[in-house]
Amino acid sequence: MKITIKRFDRRKEPQSIDMNYPIFEGLTLLENFIKIKTTIDPTLVFNGICRSGVCGSCSVMVNGKTTLACSYKPKDGDHIEPLNYHEVKRDLIVDKSKAHSTLETSRAAIHGDVIVENFLKVTVQSDCILCDSCFASCPVMAVNENFLGPFALSRVYKYTTIGSDSKTSIDAIQQNGVWDCTLCGECTLACPQGIDPKMDIMNLRSRSVQSGYMDPNMQNMNFGLDFTQGF
Ligand code: SF4
Ligand code: SF4
Ligand code: FES
């Protein structure tokens, strides 16, 4: 019974290498990492603060799917990698700053509304643990690194539902936002918190249309009609 961990240390090797380790049965993947580090290979580097699915720091890819290491018991042959679409710092540790910078758009959308912001801290932000699982599962990230991504869009939707400056929020997500999502639903499947970014994005599309926007892909399709003449 073994797992394979993709290791990377730019100081030693410019390329990553796969290394095999035995499974310590009955333990979570995070506990396996700790056991490997303390008994086999002290150089293994990983994240994991709360060990109880709360902090979001331990998310990794297991056989290509995002997984919280503290909530998963490894199986023989599992292949463990760092999160997709994040710069790898070392081994399983990634730089989340770029992904989390997408939240600036949602923060800008409620610019300066202190009362709303305080309300959000307790009601909206508490659900998402910023584990980045949805972000790392989103296929759009592979082709558009400027896409706002699921957790930022999901948060914008929540802002619009609690009476924040809805129009500003909707304006902020037209570029690299709601219309760039393919509605594949991978983000929803990936979320350990039961958040449904795909549904939130669909709701944001409806609100965008109500605000006078339309799908730019539809704008490029004229179906043989001359829209400049009106109806
Ligand atoms: S539904 Fe949209 S945001 Fe979610 S993973 Fe698919 S493309 Fe990305
Ligand atoms: S929405 Fe879910 S999957 Fe995405 S960062 Fe938040 S908790 Fe993680
Ligand atoms: S260690 Fe905190 S969520 Fe896994």
Word description of this protein:
With 231 residues, the protein is an alpha+beta fold. It has two domains: 2-95, Ubiquitin-like (UB roll) (Roll); 97-217, Fumarate Reductase Iron-sulfur Protein, Chain B, domain 2, CATH 1.10.1060. Helices cover 34% and strands 13% of the residues. It has helices at residues 29-39, 97-100, 103-108, 114-123, 133-137, 150-161, 166-172, 186-190, 197-210, 216-219, and strands spanning 2-7, 17-22, 59-62, 65-68, 79-81, 87-90, 93-95. The strands form two sheets. The chain has a five-stranded mixed sheet with strand order 2-1-5-3-4. A two-stranded antiparallel sheet has the order 6-7. The longest helix is centred in the last third of the chain and has 14 residues, at 197-210. The N and C termini lie far apart (68 Å). Bound molecules: iron/sulfur cluster (2 copies) and FE2/S2 (inorganic) cluster (FES).
What is the average per-residue confidence, as pLDDT, rounded to a whole number? 88
What ligand species are in this complex?
iron/sulfur cluster, FE2/S2 (inorganic) cluster
**What is the annotated CATH architecture of the largest domain?**
Orthogonal Bundle
Describe the global form: elongated
Number of domains: 2
- Give the CATH level 1 class of the largest domain: Mainly Alpha
Biggest pleated sheet: 5 strands, mixed
Strand order of the largest sheet: 2-1-5-3-4
Cα-atom radius of gyration: 21 Å
Which homologous superfamily in CATH is the superfamily of the largest domain? Alpha-helical ferredoxin
Count the DSSP helices.
Answer: 10
First-to-last CA distance: 68 Å
CATH topology of the largest domain: Fumarate Reductase Iron-sulfur Protein, Chain B, domain 2
Helices and strands, in order, run as EEHEEEEEHHHHHHHHH
Unreliable stretches, pLDDT < 50, 5 or more residues? Answer: 111-125
The count of β-strands is 7
